[in-house]
Design goal:
single chain, alpha+beta, 23% helix, 36% strand, elongated
Length: 416
């Protein structure tokens, strides 16, 4: 797992909760956070930060309504240079324009983005020109396009207009200072990436297990989407390791009840078929989300996120690691390889050709049980297969005696 940058991502995105209505929101998260912070934006705002605002900058003050210096108020005009990064928009909203008989006015400055980082722009500033192009007699849409196409270095000629501040209503000021906010917790959250739609889905399991929340975050471009996906993956990986540590500490307090020692946890998509005909997989593949946990000697599968110690000790399915084999689908060489490859080709249709799949086979008293799992990336596949193989080898090394057979009973013992 790569090292996390010690920065804060801040972006303007579209967000949807439980398939309701898409809303504009500013999301932010530092490398050490355990949640994504969301501040919803008024529908009336025409934000210029929506192009590519995933700027990894430190958070700044959320509002410029107050503390406008006297020299700014008294100056006839000012020149401000704004530097955008490859993934950052200007980070402002504008109002006015020729059709409204108003100058182009900055109505909002988004925290932590390029305009805010200058410390020289304020709500109520009229933009007189951009990169030398006069904006005093342009429509609102023309101003938006000129600002969007201004490049990475944007030279603004501005003038603070105190007399237009009543244009920003008292209600708007309250909304600026008291935006509707929420936090999306990532601890034991299932994250699904929809690359084609530049969307990340986050499934949150409530403590009472009765309800689940689904948040969909849609990004403005591929680079912004990838930056956020990498950050979310790193944070969830760290939080999963924290869950393992906390659970083991709780289990130590119950040493008389159990000797389970958790090693690794994470969500996976299990792909399966309702039925097969003469060994040939049907073209329709189903999937369900499972939480997999590796212990010192077992693989445990859960259909929902465990909340209590008892939940952790009651998985939906459990398998012995010493009777488990893990197979990368691209390297399958067993007699079932043809079926495996068919399965992968079906699930990968109309998608990229990455082999983000692995298979586990488990020997049980009911015969061999097989599971196909899909991961979000090749790195995740490698991490899971390595962890399973490593822990299976450790379980075998710790084994002192094996008994098998019914009629011809045999015992193999290992001396220390």
């Amino acid at each position: 797992m790569s090292i996390i940058e010690e920065t804060t991502l801040s972006s303007l995105v579209d967000i949807d909760q439980a398939n309701s209505t898409w809303c504009k929101a500013v999301i932010s998260m530092s490398a050490n956070d355990s949640s994504i912070h969301v501040a919803f934006v008024s529908d009336s705002d025409d934000s210029l930060s929506r192009l590519a605002p995933a700027s990894p900058t430190l958070p700044a003050s959320p509002s410029k309504f107050h503390q406008v210096p006297d020299d700014v108020v008294n100056q006839s005009k000012r020149f401000v240079r704004v530097h955008k990064t490859d993934t950052s928009g200007l980070g402002i909203s504008i109002k006015g324009g020729r059709e409204n008989k108003m100058p182009i006015l900055i109505s909002k400055i988004f925290s932590g983005m390029a305009a805010d980082n200058t410390g020289q722009l304020f709500v109520g500033d009229a933009i007189l020109s951009v990169n030398g192009v006069d904006l005093t007699d342009v429509s609102h849409d023309e101003a938006v396009q000129l600002l969007k196409k201004a490049g990475k270095t944007v030279d603004l000629e501005v003038k603070y207009l105190k007399e237009v501040m009543p244009y920003f209503s008292h209600k708007q000021r309250l909304n600026e200072n008291k935006q509707s906010r929420l936090c999306i917790p990532l601890k034991l959250a299932y994250v699904n990436d929809i690359k084609e739609a530049r969307t990340v889905e986050i499934h949150i399991h409530s403590d009472d297990q009765q309800n689940q929340s689904l948040y969909s975050i849609r990004f403005s471009d591929g680079l912004q989407h990838q930056n956020w996906l990498n950050r979310i993956r790193c944070v969830t990986y760290r939080l999963n390791a924290q869950v393992v540590q906390e659970t083991n500490q709780l289990l130590l307090m119950m040493a008389s009840k159990t000797s389970v020692n958790f090693k690794h946890v994470g969500w996976l998509n299990e792909c399966y078929q309702n039925s097969s005909v003469t060994g040939i997989l049907k073209p329709h593949v189903h999937s369900k989300v499972l939480l997999m946990a590796l212990t010192h000697d077992s693989i445990l599968l859960y259909e929902k996120a465990p909340v209590s110690v008892d939940d952790w000790l009651q998985p939906s399915i459990s398998y012995s690691l010493i009777c488990t084999r893990v197979i990368l689908c691209s390297y399958a060489s067993s007699p079932t390889a043809h079926s495996i490859n068919n399965f992968v080709s079906l699930t990968c249709s109309n998608r990229d050709n990455s082999n983000c799949y692995f298979m586990t086979r488990h020997g049980t008293n009911r015969g061999v049980q097989t599971h196909y799992f899909k991961c979000m990336s090749n790195d995740e596949v490698k991490n899971w297969t390595y962890s399973i193989e490593k822990q299976a080898n450790t379980a075998v090394c710790l084994l002192k005696q094996v008994e098998f057979g019914k009629e011809n009973f045999c015992t193999i013992s290992k001396k220390n």
